[in-house]
Structure formats: C-alpha cells, structure tokens
Amino acid sequence: MKNSGFKNEKDLLNALHEKKYIQINSNLQKLIAQSFKNYSGIILCKQEAGTNKSDLLISIGEESHTYSVKKGSGNSIHQEPIDEFIDYLTKEYKLAQKTAKNLQRFIWADGTIDGTGNIENRISSKKFKKRNPKAIKEIQNFFDGIKKPLLRRFLVNGVHSHSSAEFIYYGTPKKGIVCKSEDVLTWLATHDSKATLHIGKLSFQAWNRNLKGKRKAEKKRGVIQLKWGGLKKDIKKIAKINLGKLQEIDFVKELNKKERLEYWTTLGLDLRVHHAIRVKYTKFGKLQHKKVWAKADAFIAKGFVPKAYLDEKDFFLNEDDMKKFNLTAVEESGISIKQVDSHSYQIVKMSPSSFEKLFGSNILAAGASVYYKKKKHLLRNKSVLEGWDITEEEFFNYYSNIMNKKVGSVVNPNCQKCLKKIKRYAKKEIHKKVKESPYISKLLFMGIENFEEPFTAPWLYEGEVFRKNSVMPFSVTTGSGRSRGSFSIVLKPK
Asked: The pTM is what?
C-alpha cells in the first residue's frame, strides 16, 4: 500500500480512538452506526499490521469489528506468486495439470511455464488470448466454478492473514462508505469484468509482464494481480443497495415498536393485533412473467407474536416469522420504503417484453431510445431498433406520419434534428399514456394488477413521511445499459 494509504488509516485511527460517538463527525457516526449494535461506550481503534486483510480493528465495549480500508483510484486488491497460487488451487480444488500449465504460460507470457523464455517472446494478454483461445476458455471456466471462495481469499481472508475483514470502508475520516464484506463478495460474484481473464468483477492478470525487459521491473514477473476496475463507483452501488435494506429494516422495527401511533392511525389498523413484516422473497410479476422484487418492501399481518420474541428479534419481523406464527396478511397494506436522502431511485424499469405488454407496441420505446447528439453514436440506432424488435419500415412509417415529414434513416447525420424531435415526442407520449391510464399508472407505481396482495404498494414511506402512495411527478428516460445492448425504459421521480 502506498504511504497515503497508511496515512489515511492513521487519520481514521486518530479520529476514532478513545472518542465517544457524539464526539466524532457525522461520517464516522454513520460508519459506527452501520457496524455496531451498541455504540454508547468509548471507541477503541488500532491498526492491524503485516499481511492481515483487515487494516483497522474497532471496538466498543465487548463488540469488535474489522475493516479493510480503501482510498483513491488505486484498485489493486491482491498479489501473489503464480506458483503459490497454483499450489493453493491444486490442494483445495484439484487443479488439473493442463490448466495449471496454461495459467503459468499466461502469467509468464514468454512461451514457458517458468519465465525462462527470451524477452522477445513475451506477449500481451490480448495476444495470448488471440493465440490461445481454448486455454483462456479453460482457465475462465475453472475460475467461474470457484469464484466466490476465490473472491473471499483475495478480498477478505487473504493468504497469510490472521485477521479477515468484516467490512470494507472506502474513504477518509471526513467522507466515506462502509459495506459488509459479504455484500461486497456477493456483488462481485454476480458481475463480470471485461478483462481477458476475470474472477467475477475482479480482473485476473500478471502484475507486470515486463515486455521490454527492464531490469527494475523484472522482479514483478511471475506474480498474479487482482484489480477491481471502477472500485469507487461499484462501492457506491453496493452501499446504496445496503442502505435501502437498512431503511426497510429500521422502518419495520419502528412500526413494531408501536411508539409512533400516528403510523397505525394512518393505516387505520389496531396496533395491538397487527405487525409489520418485511418482504424477504421475490414474487411472481404478471407483467414480467417471472419472479421479481415486488413493489411492497413491507406489509401488515394480523395475529399474535409473543412479546418475548419481539424483544429477542429487536422488533424486526419478516416473511419467515409470519409463517412461524401463522399470521394473516392484510390486503392492500403493502408499503414501498424509500431511503431518507434518495431522490434518484427508479420507480420502475420496463424491458422490451414488459413495455410491449403494457403499451401494445414498442414503437414509442424505440423512439425514446434513439441516439441523436453525437454523429459517431448514430450507428447504434440499428441495434436500438433490433433491441426493441421494431423494423426500420415500421419506424419510418410511424414517425413520418407523426413528424409530417419523411423519415428515411436512423444513422444519417442529416437526420439528427429529426431524431431529436422523435425522441422528445416519444418520451412525452409515454409520459402522457402513463398519466392518463389509471391501469398503467397504478401498475407501474404501485404494482396493482401485477402482484398478488399484499405485495402491491398502496402506501409509501419517503423522506420520513408515511402516506398513501400516488402517481408522483416523474420523468421518462432510458436505462443505463443502452450502450451495451440492454434496452429499457425507466421512470424516475422528477
């Protein structure tokens, strides 16, 4: 780690050690609150030395947690000699000798398995892949079968570590983000890097191929390196998901404590026999025709739950508890729970099949998705029409009639102004159809007619206000995957 990394750890230590919760800044209060169950005592903090994956150990009373601290744009996660890594894979996962040799050849990149080849024979990873596509596929298939334990070794447990990291903290004492290591591992395992070889979102590469044979870089050969491209951006995404979960859990607890009587008055339910239940499992969506997350994050159920059990669970109940005590769900009691400071969430995201089912055709979605600003992006409009399953003939005929002028191309720079008008028209028309159709608006905003009860969301908790859900002001936009060929129409709060 660079000196700035050690200094950042020291700064965090100094800002936390022997302080009380009320004495530390709001950022560090959030760090402690998201990690500890009880934080009323004196905070003790110390650096973890040597090869440990955890950088800081923080304790309050008898409770302690470990943290791996990240900072800046540096995204190297792990380094290890290739021979040590192969020994580990052979011992733990019965790595085939053929795959082991391919791994060695990939890392040394000089035609040998031990780095004894000539400098002029050294090649880049791209050239290696081009020349050895079967070897790359074989290695990748092996990695894909064990990526979760490998990610744990690289990011959390380490190789010679005596202290694993329970949390990942990205930032400084003044500003940062904390995530549970398990949540980070799950996210990394379900996303892939575009590197030649990857383990989930981490790229797997040689630390330094030293293609030109520089003397100082030679010691870096024969070492694997795992890098996390986009670490800062990804950590924010993971944290946002986790904060949403925390918000849901906290609100369910608050309802079950029965201290805010106005919430139960708003619901019009007897708080003595009703309880809040957090939705734990995905539900069948008629529009999507598969199991997805329902509109309701929580709902109300009727029945008896022992006070001792509520105390033991800190007033948190989910669908498993509902089944345990044979509670009865209250229809139309579903609650959509939003983060306190979130205003950029998605109200709904519609795929091509969902949009077509709801609007009868994808012609408006295709129009709303076209590129027009940059000439170099106009060629992407071919894939836009294909993605929305709209032919050029359909597109030209429909929008020529709407624009009262002939539309003859989606890639010609002379059509940029026309494409701009088409995009604006399509977005306005989608907006209009959503607002004017009670069926569409209730389905998209509250899940009514899409999910069975009690998984619709006629209630909303947002900005610490609990109220009836409604069609709020919204904007129509395209999903973030458009440039990658994943097309969707998204509604967001305006």
From this structure: 0.62
pLDDT in tens, 80-117: 999 999 999 999 999 999 999 999 999 999 999 999 99
Would you put residue 259 in left (φ > 0), alpha (ψ -120 to 50) or beta? alpha
Please give the Cα distance from 157 to 168 (Å, whole number): 12
**pLDDT at position 236 over 90:** no
Long-range contacts of range 118-126, CB-CB < 8 Å, 24 or more positions apart?
119/211, 119/212, 119/213, 122/209, 122/210, 122/211, 122/213, 123/209, 123/211, 124/209, 124/211, 125/195, 125/196, 125/197, 125/205, 125/206, 125/209, 126/196
What's 261's DSSP letter?
A: H
Q: Tell me how far CA of residue 34 lies from CA of 31, 206, 246, 361, in angstroms.
A: 5, 36, 9, 45
Q: How many helices (H) and strands (E) does the chain have?
A: 18, 20
The reported pLDDT for the residue numbered 356 is 96
pLDDT of residue 30: 85
CA 27, 31, 35 angle in degrees (round to 5)? Answer: 165
User: Which residue type sits at 23?
Assistant: Q
- Respond yes or no on whether the N-terminal peptide bond of residue 454 is cis (omega within 30° of 0): yes
Mean per-residue pLDDT, 316-327: 95
CA 291, distance to chain mean position in Å, is 19
What tokens were used for 116?
Answer: 């004894």
